[in-house]
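From the shared-data thread, chain only:
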Amino acid sequence: MKTNETVRLENLLWKHTDQRKDFGCFEVTIGWYGRQRVDFMTIDGKNTVRCYEIKVTKSDFYSRNGHNFVGTFNYYVMPHELYEELKDEIPNGIGVYTDKSAYDLTCIKKAKRKTCEDVENIKLYMIRSLQREYSKYRSSGSMEALAVIQREISKANRLRDIETGRYIKVRDEYSQFRGAMIEMFGSDAYRKVKNEINKEVG
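Structure, as tokens:
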């Protein structure tokens, strides 16, 4: 179970990255049969991948798990008090966001750009993780949560390459997602859910 502090930081992180209109997903599993799972990952119109690992205690930080930095820019997200205790132990090149402001996250330490070797597969990992969340909320009947996920899929489909003015080709990935949903629930059920989501989001 996630602690209240983890959920609070997740909410701040969602709010912060959503302002940039990036395509984001929580708990993205890396690799087709991998055990690595990034707490939160975003990708923008220039194929810039950002990975965020949430740490709320020292023991959490010192754990071997949850340091999955495969992005162009990589960050820890933590309470500001924890950062003050650990700032000398943050690895070189890894940035840090904290809750120094009560209403938004603040970048306390900038991340260094690195080459993201596997962008195309990372897109698929994110779509697959969104599919997992869609399936989970579909089973629970949470239309509000489904609407959020549907908006993220739509956002991914609308991402533009700012330099060239051409749409990024994520339609094939979205088609895979849609196909998986139809396979799981049938085309009639999928259309019904989609119509209900469209009503919810206007």
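Helices lie at 4-18, 58-62, 80-86, 119-140, 143-158, 171-185, 187-201.
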